[in-house]
Amino acid sequence: MLFKLPAAWLTGVRVIEATSERCVVNIRHRWINQNPFNSIFWAVQGMAAEMTTGFFITREINKSGRNISMLVAKNKAIFTKKATGKINFICNQGLEVKKIIDKAITTGNGQTLWIDSKGYNENDVMVSHFSFEWSVKLRK
């Protein structure tokens, strides 16, 4: 991650679980990733959330062996509580991503999918909810 996503690595974003259905990424509030309000900066939370969703896209593209482009076309975020301590971002849409990659390959048409990632603190209280619209397209 240091060479592919140096900002995520420096700010402490770490993958702690990755299966075909679920991805969990962890971030801990530290000096390097804080905002002036003594919580995790929204952009750092966004990196962690995006990583949970992008993991599935990258994995399925690699497994397919095909030349497929991927891009975040849109994103939305809701912040519900101050992000302090350890935050786990969780995405459970791996099977949906597999279907959309398969559809892009079989039809040859670009596909889009909204994928959600929610961040939970150590008390299992949601602190933020990110949604990313990913676009995938088979390259000719």
List the helices and strands and how they pair.
Elements: H1 6-11, E1 14-18, E2 23-28, H2 42-64, E3 68-79, E4 86-91, H3 94-107, E5 111-120, E6 126-138
Antiparallel strand pairs: 1-2, 2-4, 3-6, 4-5, 5-6
Give structural notes:
Helix 2 packs across helix 3 (94-107). By secondary structure, this protein is α+β, with helices and mostly antiparallel strands. The two termini are 29 Å apart. The chain is built from three helices and six strands; from the N terminus they run αββαββαββ. It has helices spanning 6-11, 42-64, 94-107, and strands spanning 14-18, 23-28, 68-79, 86-91, 111-120, 126-138. The mean pLDDT is 95.
Please give a handful of descriptors for the protein shown.
six-stranded antiparallel β-sheet, Thiol Ester Dehydrase, Chain A, 140 residues, alpha+beta, 6 strands
Mean pLDDT score, rounded? Answer: 95
CATH architecture: Roll
| Percent helix | 25-40%
CATH fold topology:
Thiol Ester Dehydrase, Chain A
Number of helices: 3
Estimated radius of gyration: 15 Å
Compute the number of strand runs.
6
Shape: elongated
Element-by-element helix/strand order: HEEHEEHEE
What's the number of domains? 1
Oligomerization category of the chains in this entry:
single chain
Q: Whole-Å distance between the termini? A: 29 Å
What does the main sheet amount to?
6 strands, antiparallel
In terms of DSSP E residues, the strand content is: 35-45%
CATH class: Alpha Beta
Main sheet: which strands, in order across?
1-2-4-5-6-3
Stretches where pLDDT falls below 50 for ≥5 residues?
none
Structural class per helix/strand content? alpha+beta
Provide the CATH superfamily: Hotdog Thioesterase
